[in-house]
Amino acid sequence: MEVRKYTRWTGGGIGEQKIALSDIGPFMAYATCKLAKDRGLDKVQFLAIFDSEFQHRNLVRYYKFIGCKPVRVVGEELSSDYPARLLYGGIGTLMEGEVETSLRRWAKRFRKT
């Protein structure tokens, strides 16, 4: 079984690359949304962490694909954002979305393979 992962801009569209199931990240995020749904929650939040500009852009684009929208930037001000940085584990863009929307979009992606 394989999943598709958007990897880079190719001029005519976003390039696709097949990756093995060992890339566990998307499945962990899907499981998080499933758990949130099972517990009666309707919103999910992810942090598009700013490790590098390239990685941050990819995470923001991916989270938008699954239906999340940017809420705010975490970690801009060390003194006022310190609790948020501890909670989310770093600096980046906080994204929020609907659990149902995210589950539907991931399910479509996983079924294609």
Walk me through the structure.
With 113 residues, the chain is of the alpha+beta class. Helices cover 45% and strands 31% of the residues. The protein is built from four helices and five strands; from the N terminus they run ββαβαβαβα. The chain has a three-stranded antiparallel sheet. Strands 1-2 form a two-stranded antiparallel sheet. A hairpin with a 4-residue loop joins β1 and β2. The longest helix has 14 residues, at 25-38. The N and C termini lie close together (6 Å).
What structural class should be given to the helix and strand makeup? alpha+beta
- Helices and strands, in order, run as EEHEHEHEH
- Separation of termini? 6 Å
Residue stretches low in confidence (pLDDT < 50, at least 5 long) are 1-15, 17-22
Number of helices: 4
Fraction of residues in helices? 40-55%
Oligomeric state of this protein? single chain
Mean pLDDT: 76
Radius of gyration: 15 Å
Strand-residue fraction? Answer: 25-35%
| Global geometry | globular
Biggest pleated sheet: 3 strands, antiparallel
By DSSP, the count of extended strands is 5
Q: Largest beta sheet: what is the strand line-up?
A: 3-5-4
